[in-house]
């Protein structure tokens, strides 16, 4: 179905100096193994009740921490969305404005307590070091967070209700693992907040006159990443850059394919629905033209990020949990005739779901497209390209074929036709580890 993608000229343009690598000890939870090293299902279980409970506890902690982190990204996204909406419309809608005010107020109070405590420490009042906080646990954890990270990361995280709840309610084991995962994803959290326009500095500006260690550094003006679309940013080795293809910037589009009549002999948009050719709408099952549509941008648009993966190039990482069957987004680009030859990396065949092997056009995403064009190949993918009829159009959607966890790379199968003179590097069992033959390509 697809002729699809990743070539050596797909690379990342650096936008900032690479940060010095941070050295820290990684803690990994490992399940007990039997003495022969065989899978446990092949040998009788020997775990005691205590060992079994310990293993279950590890699994529950990991699950809970992933839920907290997914909620943190969603909280930040929601705040930024409301801020953008309120600024554009300049109106005071009670639910949106009230939610926005409450979140900033709670974050501001917590930061005020942290600043007050640092001022007490500065003047030597350490005997009652936690009196500024509402609890000893808050004092310990906020102080620990500031020492391990900085005021900027704290100001970002406290704007998330999920983070604040974890700070107050979770036990020490969950909190320690959460701190570890925040450290591992520190660059991701920073870029996510900055590229979506989170107002984290405003929480600290009223304390700018205080000589708190590290506070002035957090208030230094930064590169405004929110001026461009957040999918114009690629995270690579602790820094970030911009995706390039053939020395040109790749531009994000959100609202369907770009159609230029001059590219087609009949001047007609090949994605316009034809009832006898394209079948019923996949949303309302109407046999004739309807007004259904898939809302764009989708939630997945906001909760994924572009990452440069070694040996594979730019890929997509999930910042939320997606369920099997979810429609993540539409694959979009410039519509071109089927015989278009200038995009052998991103081009995807566009055809009706009812007529196999009769392509209507190519979707060329080398210059204009959305995040779906960066999906890397896997022989055991987490998504698939799905031909759909929706409303007045036909489209190619990206659908999850299994549950996708936060921080997991989202992948798709490019199909055998892509592997002519190419080598698959996905590393999955049964991977296409050698170049496809001519017979496979023709098939």
Automatic annotation (TrEMBL):
Subcellular location: Chromosome; Nucleus
BP GO terms, sorted: methylation
Keywords per UniProt: Chromosome, Methyltransferase, Nucleus, S-adenosyl-L-methionine, Transferase
One Pfam family linked to the record: SET
Molecular function via GO: methyltransferase activity
Gene Ontology, cellular component aspect: chromosome; nucleus
Keyword RNA-binding appears in the UniProt entry: no
Main localisation: nucleus
Domain of life: Eukaryota
Keyword Signal appears in the UniProt entry: no
PROSITE patterns: SET
Domain SET: 302-415
The protein, known as: SET domain-containing protein
